[in-house]
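Researcher: Re-running this chain for the archive, since the previous output was lost when a drive failed. Same request as before.
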Amino acid sequence: MGSGTTKFMGIVNLDPESFHAPSRALEADAFRRRVDGLLERGADIIDIGACSSRPGAAEAPAELEWARLEPALETMAREYAGVTVSIDTYRASIVLAAYQLLGPFWVNDISAGEWDEAMLPVAGRLGLRYVAMHHQGSFASMHDSYQYGDIVEDVKAWFRDFAVRAKETGVLDWVLDPGFGFSKSDEDNQRLFDHLDEFRSFRRPILVGISHKRFLWRPHGLTSDTCDEVEREYEQRAIAMGADIIRKH
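Model: Regenerated structure tokens:
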């Protein structure tokens, strides 16, 4: 990854509940090792999250999220100047505090601005690149399967609505994330993936986050820990269909 035009976004998790244990880096030395390892593998963007969104995870309070993030961001600012940082958060207060430490970074928001009404205006005012992920429902219900008419057309309509909200709030540089694994059944995820190329019509960079997702491995009788080969095949398919960014552990 990290070669050619498709970018590799490497995941660093600061929450002990976060999905996929190898991506967790809870102590300062572990954080540096994780970042160094991702950069050695060719990561173009380091995506740091301190509030787990795995199924069943408890929602971390904003104060705890920032207590986890602050030392990590200070390390990035001090020791990794020039590395593109993405922060996985849905809170405008976190974005504002992080901006004071880092200056410009990417906002990776699984709520697409729906859980904090200040998020889009703040991202727009600061001129930050913003990743909008498709989902349905609240933090507690975002992993429940949602009933769609046609998953592909419904997600397209959702992004058309988001595009209006983004323009109204000054978010001009945004990335489209179809939200694989969120508010979708395995069948929905597969159909959405098979039609990924249709989202090129939005003329926005497309981010694909399928790392260790259940819809990849369960139909093949695999597990999250034994699906590397299938995952690589899906990543190559995603790139062939126009994915600009692959987010992975």
